[in-house]
Amino acid sequence: xxxxxxxxxxxxxxxxxxxxxxxxxxxxxxxxxxxxxxxxxxxxxxxxxxxxxxxxxxxxxxxxxxxxxxxxxxxxxxxxxxxxxxxxxxxxxxxxxxxxxxxxxxxxxxxxxxxxxxxxxxxxxxxxxxxxxxxxxxxxxxxxxxxxxxxxxxxxxxxxxxxxxxxxxxxxxxxxxxxxxxxxxxxxxxxxxxxxxxxxxxxxxxxxxxxxxxx
Length: 215
Known about the structure:
The chain is of the alpha+beta class. 42% of the residues lie in helices and 28% in strands.
């Protein structure tokens, strides 16, 4: 991953996606399929109170859409309260599953999100439920014609209402922060057969839940 790579970013519901040398069609495939999985899971379960069931449904939907993923588990971040805000924890945990160059892209995405209110509003609307925030952020590349996504999962609960999923400042009170990550690959041969059906099923949700991020 060199400094000359083309980089794009977007918020798709509760997921921040950063693309490195990924053509537009593949970007749309990733955005639309992950958004559909989110919306399908949220129709059945609450991320705040039924996170285990929500993630099981989310993963199941991704698999039906052609994503191949390694199973993952959330781990507790015991020292999260010692950090000033959620973004600090997110960035520190990202170091554990990204390469140095990948982390640089990830960090640039967090910084861009800080300055751009529209995509942040979409993320907040989709990720926040009272005193709980749950969102994902990752880097997508093109691997032999298939989208490969290194995705971090971030879930935290606090003692007061969350007003900014990525940049919430802890202040006083308890913080429980869990994190997971996995690498997923979208089988392009499978997905191209259902691409039109996914777009049709999403309908107006595409405009409602997706915003570009300028990197």
